[in-house]
Design goal:
The structure holds two protein chains of two kinds.
Chain A (H helix, E strand, L loop, with lengths): L1 E10 L2 E11 L4 E5 L6 H8 L7 E6 L2 E3 L2 H7 L3 E4 L10 H11 L7 H11 L15 H14 L4 E5 L7 H16 L3 E6 L2 H7 L2 E6 L2 E4 L5 E6 L4 E7 L2 E7 L3 E7 L5 E3 L9 E12 L5 E6 L3 E6 L1 H7 L6 E6 L4 E3 L1
Parallel strand pairs in A: 3-8, 3-9, 6-7, 7-8
Antiparallel strand pairs in A: 1-2, 1-4, 4-5, 9-10, 11-14, 12-13, 14-20, 15-19, 16-17, 16-19, 17-18
Chain B lengths: L1 H16 L2 H34 L5 H11 L4 H12 L14 H25 L3 H9 L4 H11 L1 H17 L2 H7 L9 H10 L3 H31 L3
Helix pairs in contact in B: 1-11, 2-5, 2-8, 2-11, 3-5, 4-5, 4-9, 5-8, 5-9, 6-7, 8-11, 10-11
Chain lengths: 331, 234
Amino acid sequence: MLGARDLRQRYAGRTVVDVPSLDLEPGTVTALVGPNGSGKSTLLRLLAFVESPAEGTVLLRGRPVQTAAARRAARRDVTLVEQHPLLFAMTVAENLRYALTARRQRDPDAAGRILQALDRVGVADLANRAARQLSAGELQRVALARALLLRPRALLLDEPASAADRGARSALAEVLTALHKEEVTVCLASHQLEDAYRWSSRVLALADGRLAPVTPENLFRVTLPPGGGPRVVRAGPLEFLVVTETSGPATLAISPDDIIVSTAALQSSARNQFAGGVVAVSDDGHGHVRLVVDVGTPLVVRITPAALAELGISLGTRVHLSVKAMAVRVI
Amino acid sequence: MELFAEGLRRALALLLAGDPEVLSIAALSLRVAVVATGLACLVGVPIGFLVGTTQFWGRRAAITALNTMLAFPTVVVGVLVWGLLARSGPFGGAGLLYTWWAIVLAEVILAAPIAAALTAAAVQGVDPRVRRTALTLGAGPWLVHWTVAREARFALFGAVVVAFGRVIAEVGAAMIVGGNIRHQTRTLTTAVALSTSQGDFALAIALGLVLLALALTVNVLLHLFQGRGDAGRA
């Protein structure tokens, strides 16, 4: 439905998004996780066609969207709800009506539709309130209702729960389930891994504008010692060398694509080396092989079928895993 | 102080008596100011919008040029327009020199950069999310501009008020291209200049007070209009 090829965005010469390939399928919820400043919001704005990329293209239904006119047409199918959404200085209902007018969706029952959209996120009682007097949580819910009202084919949500209370979270969960059934493509950005896993079918980690898939097995809750630069961090039975400027509680994420598998220990630049037996071999559904290796705790690795055959890996094979310190992402 | 008291007395007397000459001078001043402000905004506001909202090569230079034009000496504009409209000038055939249209033209040249520069500043000050939100909700270019303008309406309104102020108080250009001809191109400011040079300070002050009263009335009317436009929004 929505995708990107060789997508790059730069601000003042600095590359903030660098995504060689991304595909978001209908009826799926994809979560982008990453710390603040990792490029989540910029990527969402590019996918929402409200910002033009420095290089590369965003695809809609497999077709590249490159001209201003094409972007304008594409915006009819995609809607973005920003982390700090903006409502215009009118009432809540008028804000939703503006959205209908903007898309030229004339509907004799516009008022009914507006109330229904507000009701979907549990804020129908706010219809006649002045939008600029809402609390942050109410604002986020009204903005979500405004987006739902437009019935987009793809919905992009930037930190949808950042100001949410419990009611708002359960309303959001219901909405996401319904959107899944309606075959809507959803992509949400979050800096909370728990939220990402709760709401999405696929989690991608974003660091310095680059994407990497994340599997729950390759995530480790750690406490980073104070200081900057390379540090050794204990994560359960494993010890990782990590390069980061942050400290305190954090999550380490290792992309299954960033792990090198070998049958003998490597003399290499990779600072993190583990050994263990292969406990699972399966097809990942995208033409690659998913290995689970028990190195004291299970680690998931993705390799090509050719590499699997060449290394002669099967269940029980003892393998060595190498991970560069730079490939251990801190979220 | 005697002079000001006398001026105030004369101003009240002239206004209360409905002195036809003062009324016609005031009417002309108002007409010139309203037409020139309207035209200046018609030209300046879109330019300001363009400069304030779009990225193009030479944008910084355009902003600097606009800001420099704010300091244009009025007599220089007067001489420029005089040169254009004089019989020997490129537009001499139009026969506009020493008509109120010549004053309007000079005032538009003076006020349009004000409207443009203040509009640019106003729309640049609008939260960037306004444009993005309008876009992501599917608004076309006109609705996006309209939405941004509505968010900046107080500042845009300020641009109109300042442009009007410049035009109604301007004397140098009006004198040069209008010629201060009685019953034809004599505005309140040129009449004040004439009375002063003739030594009739009381009349000069009286006319000055009329000018202020006029400006006050127009500004109050604009404020009322703006207040009503805003009442519908919470």
